[in-house]
Amino acid sequence: MLSIFSNITSSRTNFKLPLKHHTTLQLNSKLLILPNELLAEICENLSPQDLFSLSSVCKELRNILWSDKSIITQQIWRNSRHKFYPSLKSPPLIGMSEQQYLWLTVLAKKCQFCDESDVNLLKKYWEFQIICCETCLNKRMESHHTLLTKYNIPEDVLSTCLCLGDKGYLLSNIKTAQIEYSKAMDKDNWVTHKQLEVIAQKCRIISILLDEFHSDHKPMINFDFINENGSE
């Protein structure tokens, strides 16, 4: 995060902020007092990369531009996507914010677990909403058979999570599903709802992959998903 106070001296005598830091401080102050609707208008010509850079300027701007609850914030990122990446027409996955969507689509450049940045070693896994190298992925996955026999995960729970073919499931997703399943009062209804959500997610993933394929930028597309789910 950019520190606008990094060059302030500790002297008790009068001091001046360096010009660019003083300008940044003034800019931040003016932006933060603007109504959200006006901020949205100011940001409408900013690319996703610009929005990400702006969100890194200070904590207050990050809280505004990285909020996944604010309707205005989601509108800002959605408008940026439509303007700068018009081929990415599909909406985000269920439960995914516009920021997360753009991060996975065009902003992420390294493995989110080990910081590997070689594009030849990275792959995007929309079913898990992550971008990583194969080594890190394998550490975080387990097969369907092992989850059933070794860890005694109910089939009902597994059926509510997206998988990567024979490679299996992301363990963090299984853990979350287990917790939700244990808390569900009507487990049958919960399972049915989640199974329908999985189907909807698969449809959105295929739509996103097709958008990426036809876009101008060069995404790290995981065609394994289409190959593994196309025959279902």
TrEMBL record:
InterPro entries: F-box-like_dom_sf (IPR036047), F-box_dom (IPR001810). Gene3D superfamilies: 1.20.1280.50. PROSITE patterns: FBOX (PS50181). Pfam families: F-box. Residues 28-80 form the F-box domain. This is 14727_t:CDS:1.
